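In the current project phase, we have settled on a layout for protein records. A sample record is reproduced below.
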Amino acid sequence: MRRIVEDLIRVEGVIGSLLVGKDGLVVASTLMDEEDAEILGAMSAAVFGEIDKATKRIGVGMLMDTIIDAEQGSILMLESKELILVVITQRMVNLGLVKMEMRRAAKRIGEAVPI
């Protein structure tokens, strides 16, 4: 799993990535500060879960991915099996390319995680 999140930071403009369980526990991270990884992991699981509930409630179905756009960059989240793949980017990044690489990573995660 560590290799999968490490491969994502090779994409230009990606500054960090992590894989978290839906309970918020970090499975793998490229963030140098472990506390930052834990905080982002917990926040990502909570936000993803709440948005998923809302999309189901309003009738647009299960959440596939989400982007949180901030002043200095973005946080992208994508579900893979029972895990959430989280990527942090700089402001000027090709979001389409990042999403494509995240989907590839999610496929690798799906192959690595037993059903």
